[in-house]
Amino acid sequence: MSTRTLSRIGERSFILVMLAFFLLPFLWLASTAYKPSRDIFSIPPKLTFPPTFEQFATVFRLFDVWSLVSSSLLIAGGSVILSLLLGVPAGYALARSTSRYAIAVAYFFMAIRMVPAVAALIPFYLMMRDIGLLGSWVAVVLINAMLNSAFVTWMMFSYFRSLPKELEEAALTDGCTLFGSFWRVALPAVRSGVVASTLFCLMFSWNDFLYPMFLTRLDSKPISVALLSAYGTKDITWGTLGALAHFSTIPIVLIVLFLNRYFVQGLTKGIH
Amino acid sequence: MTLSLTSALRPFPALSVSYVERRRLFFILMTLPAVIYVLVIGVWPLAQGIWFSLYEYNLLKPARTHFVGLGNYIDLLSDTVTRGAFVNTVIFTVGAVTVELLLGFAIALALWRDDRFNRICLALILIPVTITPLVVGLIFRALLLADYGLVGYYLAEFGLSDPRGLFANPSSALATLIFVDIWEWTPLVALILLAGLKALPGDILEASEVDGATALQRLRIIVIPLMLPSILLALTLRTIDAFRIFDSVYVTTGGGPGNATNTLMLHAVKQGLEFFNIGRASAISNLTLICIAVIAAGFILLIRKADRKANGR
């Protein structure tokens, strides 16, 4: 009894220490956004400060925050929709096909996702330059959707494969078309897989800065690129960056916290 | 007349040879858009990258473009900066992945019991995974800065780090980057391992407890062997990701000081998009790609072997 309680206490305190380790650094940066500038640059660093919104005022003066956020949304939204449209049907067909090539094609999609983003960047950059798409958010959507659709295909392949075939066979005998049995029977059954794939694609596209950095121009750059360019500038303080970082992290952290169940499910089921 | 009669009498007119054909066509039509898309947007640039790597090709000197065969690769193998980048990448990968696995396993074990406290903690612990790598870089710059950073100030004050900060010293910069990676990705490893733990057969664990095995014995004899597929999966994912590390290095140190934290992918980006040396950059990318393919193939074989052992498949 007592050893059990003891080990329980040990477990809990270890978890609390880990929680502090993983959360405090994040909260530290977030907190700089509410500090008056002179407290950010105090030596030694201060833990208490009178909260202020002056950093947010500076951010809105220096950056067109809404345009940055809407570019991010456009890039993330566009690539998520495109990759779901391409990846979900492909994942279904590969899972249900009895062809011996199906598994090979599925593995091909998984292999594509393992390719380092940088490897495709330079030729893709030249390709976009040649067809005149360089500088527009469309170029970023195209390449993100490529990586994401490969990922969605692989993930949905695993989800559909774990779904019993009998459901759709019953629908087919009842006179459903092939597409109907996919759309009305199989797809609703793997809702959680679709949500999980959407979450992963959203996270990837929202957080990506490598492609947008080289492929977009001033008027189409997302918030991640703005953060990077602000980061290297001398006259921008940690407070301003902390405030700007709010807009790039809070949406995605909130979405994942709310849909946390799917996130966990997707990782454990989709990757296997 | 008779023909239409027999076909009308058949219970499922669709279940015929033509149905099998139609089904095949349907599957092909469903897969084709994705395959074509990935081939055009993904595989075509990669193939071009192989082509470029065989040329002396600099965007700033287009007139001097000429075929050099494997020349770029031979240059890279004798180039000390590239060799340094390779060594850094290997040290980074081994260091980060080892700690992530050990720490992630400890966290997964502590979160194993399914209760409200553990579920909430898991959700919160996952936050580093979801935030932008760029912001992760910012966080650690802000914390470790020697003059104004909360941690960096005291480290420098007590002489535990270079007075210019951990990122500024060649001997601590790579270790600091490994630390940042551990912070960002350990939660993901913990999550994968936790899923593996929860899938373990409960009856075997209970039986071993009744037989009086200590916690450590159970861990060594039952849990770890049965968990091998999940452990290998986490190992594969993290190794491949760590090997192609770019984001956090670019944001925090940019490869410096000197070339102390230069990694293969960073080296490729610098060669390609800063010096416009497309041939060289493509060759570095392709070498990295080969390394990743070898690592991935090795691990996937190991996973299948472990799976067969654990599940008897």
Automatic annotation (TrEMBL), chain A:
InterPro entries with a match to the protein in the record: BP-dep_ABC_trans_perm, MetI-like, MetI-like_sf
Protein name: Carbohydrate ABC transporter permease
One biological process term in Gene Ontology: transmembrane transport
Transmembrane segments: 12-30, 73-94, 101-125, 137-160, 181-206, 236-259
Stretches assigned to the ABC transmembrane type-1 domain: 69-259
Family: Belongs to the binding-protein-dependent transport system permease family.
Pfam family, one: BPD_transp_1
Keyword terms: Cell membrane, Membrane, Plasmid, Transmembrane, Transmembrane helix, Transport
Keyword Transport: yes
Compartments reported by the entry: Cell membrane
Cellular-component GO terms for this entry: plasma membrane
Species of the source: Rhizobium sullae
Membrane topology: Multi-pass membrane protein
UniProtKB/TrEMBL annotation, chain B:
Domain ABC transmembrane type-1: start-end pairs: 86-299
The keyword RNA-binding belongs to this UniProt entry's keyword annotation: no
Localisation per UniProt entry: Cell membrane
Main localization, broad class: membrane
PROSITE patterns: ABC_TM1
Membrane-crossing residue ranges in chain numbering: 25-47, 85-112, 124-144, 182-200, 221-240, 283-303
Domain of life: Bacteria
InterPro entries to which the protein is assigned, alphabetical: MetI-like (IPR000515), MetI-like_sf (IPR035906)
A biological process from GO: transmembrane transport
Recorded topology in the membrane: Multi-pass membrane protein
Keyword line: Cell membrane, Membrane, Plasmid, Transmembrane, Transmembrane helix, Transport
GO cellular component: plasma membrane
Gene3D superfamilies assigned to the protein according to its UniProt record, in alphabetical order: MetI-like
Family (UniProt): Belongs to the binding-protein-dependent transport system permease family.
Annotated protein name in UniProt: Sugar ABC transporter permease
Natural source organism: Rhizobium sullae
